[in-house]
């Protein structure tokens, strides 16, 4: 063996400092025979003993001490490289382009963007809020896509991956003086058939899942009012236009004049992320900052 294997030096540094093969093996998460094998290879490379056995374990020879100093300099160099990598990541530059459905943009992303800014102030974040269908259509121009459903493997494409972020539900949003606001149990879907429903726009994940659930109950509502985004729906309800089906995550928001009410049977609502394989550094840094909003009890 002409060239030294750097791992042998790192192993020797651990053994020499521990003074005990068994303890060093535990620190390295290796078996003691594996550590002994590495030391034999290193001694063969050096051509002379690196340690002698004593009652309490091992004791480095003068040559072993000299090699320990070399090994520790290599450890320090590796630690400097790791620190440089961490520093480089903390000083990311460039931009992060996000296209997200309205529910993701309102509930899931703001805390993550705040945390991201604190860690990576050199990265600009561009967030476009739309519905799930349009978000999927715009994905080629974005680093990260956030939608309100899941995409099958065939529709996802070979260059994209999907991560489910939040499993929640769809609930009723009603004015606080509406009879449903004081219900002690979830509202049956059949009970909302006579109500004036304010719908999200075509392409909304909430709308698609809510309609599917209603159709399964034999209900085919007449869609007369459809508004883009939760803010428009919320304000329309405040003005007395009717009631609506929204993400149950709205329960985490302070709505003193409106109530979020559960329905039965439950309607599932999934928030997920789509991203290319081979993420940019900025996208890799952003995803771990996502946390589900704290759930709150519904009326």
TrEMBL record:
Residues of the HTH lysR-type domain: 4-61
Keyword annotations: DNA-binding, Transcription, Transcription regulation
Keyword Ubl conjugation on entry: no
Claim: Protease is one of the keywords in the record: no
Stored SUPFAM superfamilies: Periplasmic binding protein-like II (SSF53850), Winged helix' DNA-binding domain (SSF46785)
Listed InterPro entries: LysR_HTH_N, LysR_subst-bd, WH-like_DNA-bd_sf, WH_DNA-bd_sf
Molecular function GO terms recorded: DNA-binding transcription factor activity; transcription cis-regulatory region binding
Superkingdom: Bacteria
Entry similarity comment: Belongs to the LysR transcriptional regulatory family.
Protein name per UniProt: LysR family transcriptional regulator
Originating species: Acidithiobacillus sulfuriphilus
């Amino acid at each position: 063996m002409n060239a030294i294997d750097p791992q042998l030096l790192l192993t020797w540094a651990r053994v020499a400092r521990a003074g005990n093969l068994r303890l060093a093996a535990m620190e390295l998460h290796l078996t003691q025979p594996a550590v002994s094998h590495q030391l034999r290879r290193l001694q063969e490379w050096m051509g002379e003993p690196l340690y002698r056995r004593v009652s309490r374990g091992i004791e480095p020879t003068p040559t072993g001490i000299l090699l320990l100093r070399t090994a520790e300099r290599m450890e320090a160099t590796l630690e400097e490289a790791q620190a440089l990598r961490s520093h480089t990541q903390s000083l990311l530059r460039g931009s992060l382009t996000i296209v997200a459905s309205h529910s993701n943009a309102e509930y899931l992303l703001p805390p993550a963007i705040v945390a991201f800014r604190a860690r990576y102030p050199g990265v600009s974040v561009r967030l476009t809020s739309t519905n799930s269908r349009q978000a999927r259509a715009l994905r080629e121009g974005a680093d990260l896509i956030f939608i309100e459903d899941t995409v099958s493997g065939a529709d996802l494409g070979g260059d994209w991956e999907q991560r489910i972020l939040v499993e929640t539900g769809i609930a009723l949003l009603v004015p606080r003086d509406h009879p449903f606001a004081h219900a002690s149990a979830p509202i049956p879907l059949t009970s909302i058939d006579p109500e004036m429903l304010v719908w999200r726009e075509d392409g909304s994940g909430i709308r698609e899942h809510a309609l599917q659930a209603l159709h399964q109950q034999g209900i085919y509502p007449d869609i007369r009012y459809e508004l883009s985004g939760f803010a428009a729906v919320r304000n329309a309800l405040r003005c007395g236009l009717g009631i609506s089906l929204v993400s149950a995550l709205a329960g985490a928001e302070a709505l003193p004049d409106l109530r979020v009410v559960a329905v039965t049977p439950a309607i599932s609502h999934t928030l997920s992320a789509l991203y290319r394989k081979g993420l940019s550094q900025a996208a890799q840094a952003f995803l771990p900052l996502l946390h589900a909003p704290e759930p709150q009890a519904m009326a």
